[in-house]
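Re: that chain you flagged

S.,

Sorry for the slow reply, it's been a week of failed gels. I finally had a moment to sit down with the sequence you sent. For the record, here it is as I used it:
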Amino acid sequence: MNVRRRLIPAALASALGLGALTACSSDSAATGNTDKFDVVASFYPMAFLAEQIGGDHVNVSSLTEPGQEPHDLEISTKQRAQLEEADAALFLKGLQPAVDEAVAQTGIKTKIDAAALTTLEDHGTGGHSHEGEEGHAEGGHAEEEGHAEEEEHARDPHVWLDPVKYAEVAEGVGKAFEKADPDHAADYKKNTAALVEKLNGLNSDFDNGLKNTKTKVFFTNHAAFGYLAERYGLTQEAISGLDPESEPSGARVRELQEEAKADGVTTVFYETLVSDKTAKTLARDANLKTDVLDPLEGITDRSRGDDYFQVMEANLKALQKALGAK
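Prediction finished late last night. Pasting the structure tokens below so you have them in one place:
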């Protein structure tokens, strides 16, 4: 998937370097040349896994700074050097093309691709197959869909928003750490098991919390929640596709307005790292509410929680409210 977003200035990306931090680490040491297992993670969900599994044995840094939209990342010369000096790179192939290229070119021994640790699916723009989609593809809308065909049929990389798939990735990362740093393999195995248990608990929370709702349909700014929707029997309808900066067609907006009435949709969700303009415009025109559903691509002071689990619990509460959980 070669999705580009344009919210964060390129200058910010070039400012990132050896001091790049994850949102949940206060260690400002550069990755590489430390007495720990040095891991460079591509963005927050990967950094969180590395820290939870690695514990005290790892030194983790993130190529994506907190608050930066990860798709915008361009790799600096310092970051390329950072990768070369690290013991391992943990990334999600298909999400950040610049990272994919940099990791492929580096001589780093341990390259862990999270996308290879679970199964990626094609969710399209809405996370499901639209009824009557062929009819909506007539005329100008068909032309727009043609331009977006590559994006529409890309493999969805947002696996971390499904606790079950994220647990699968965690298990694979744990095994990779055990192999790359065998001196601490027992601790990595123990930490992985603890993390998977917490993720299983989160899955139960979502399963129970979304089992009985007035509606199963929710509107999002972009198609980040396909795996979550599929896991819990919901229907995601995205205003835009995989790229939240793309403008929806007039036909798509009318379609969503009609669907909101038919399916009892109350809320249009937007996210913290991209513009909420389109979501709020649709909500105003369709007389709907707005709320945040966080795709967890980074933790900032605007996030509803300090880590993955807190933000996911906040997402669950937002969905329960919007869907009319009983």
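What I noticed first: Residues 185-209 form the longest helix (25 residues).

Talk soon,
D.
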